Amino acid sequence: MIFPASYSTLCPSALAEFVAESYRLENVDCSLLVRGVGDTYLINSHQGRFILRLYRSSHRSFSNVQAEVGLLFTLKQAAVPVSYPIIDRHGEAIQTINAIEGQRCAVLFSYAPGQAERTLNERQLYIFGQQMARFHKVSAALTLTGDRWTFDNNTTLFDPLAKLKAAFENDQESYTWLQNAARRIASHLASIDTSKFTTGYCHFDFLPKNMHFVGDSITFFDFDFMGRGWLMYDIASFWQHMAIEVYAGRMTQQAFDNNYTIFLSGYQSHRAISVQELAAVPYLSLGFWLFYMGFHTTHDQFYSFIQPAQLNVYVTFLKHLETKFWF
Questions:
Q1: A GO term (biological process) for this protein (predicted)?
Q2: Is residue 136 part of a domain?
Q3: 40, 52, 281, 300: which sits with the fewest CB atoms below 10 Å from its CB?
């Protein structure tokens, strides 16, 4: 009897054979890069480099992956620069692999050339804004086959708080503060006219680590958390990244303001943003943080992220945002 597993690591050499056969690639070498929501492998072959993503069966269903693949194919067709799925010899983009814990979906992606830049220069900021806007123009007009979640007050504020309750068992003061902050922000968003906020599919993790640059060319990747909601959530994800940089002393407030202006200039060269949408961005940052904090409670790979000392770091930063940017 083979002992059951909840999350196995598939053998790179066996995956190399699988990829070579499925995609007609030659001289394939496979190496594990990172474990996370799923597992990411680097594929080297005679035909070039690729990225193989193996999704965790407990977190991503076939229908979830189908929607992600559908979005990426549409973006590729619209010439939005993304790492896109590769079709196999049978015309399929999604593989199913029988792992010990059950079926896992796998997708082979084109390789995003270049490297991530923690701090973007002015030209890169402008291009990032342009290409995010081009992505949003496509995603706002799109209805996908497959299931994805919706980003709203419940999924970004209150549902994550319920998941986090046990993690804050010994720090009720911080948990109460988070609850009150979530209620106040939900109330604030309800008090403004959001009827004209544009809705579409969001990346929801638009951090510099999820884009590569070669000179002035950008490629987006890691759409694993994509879902439907206000497009401003994507701008908020980048806004809060720069807020962290200032908080940590790696960027001045003046540089933050200048960078944000350049980024928005690039964005608005392709797509308009209302004054009300821009004003909401800082308030959406709490939902960004709570969403991922809640996710960390569901995945053993991120157990260290929900330990008391780490949670205290997060709450202290969020209190800083409240003091400086909220209300």
A1: threonine biosynthetic process
A2: yes
A3: 300
